[in-house]
Amino acid sequence: MSYVFDHTPTRTILEAVLECSDLAVLVLGGLDPASMVALDRVSRSTRAAKAAAIRDSPRLLVRAAENARALTKTQLMGWFALSSAEADALPRSQYMRRVGGFYFLYRQPAFEQVLGGALTGIADWNARLRIRQAADTRPRVWPYPQEKKRSAAWKMPMRLCR
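Structure (tokenized):
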């Protein structure tokens, strides 16, 4: 527990740092998309502070992608909330997979183009995230599906051949 600034035990140092917009931009500017998503899972207040920092400085989205150096098409679509057609219109590199087929990697020129082209601003990004969340039809992994009951034959002792 931390007693920084307001002397309440529920507040952490990270929450206090992220409340200051200049420090938040400095801290968040060094993270990649996976770390940003992990930061959302810390607490509601850190998620709100991160959202406020991105709202104040939309460039943080691009900096996080640049810190990852390269994103696959799926990662790019997830991070920037793009459609497949929008991702296809961006500059990319194509590489062969070992088992056949190919994959795309997007780098810094594509990240720059996203913020100026496909995304008009943070309000657009937030709206896209809300639409994607509402349309999410993936099966949930929790609670786990119940196991099928095994037949009685499974419980019977094996008969030996004579």
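The two ends are 71 Å apart (CA to CA). Residues 88 and 115 are 15 Å apart (CA to CA).
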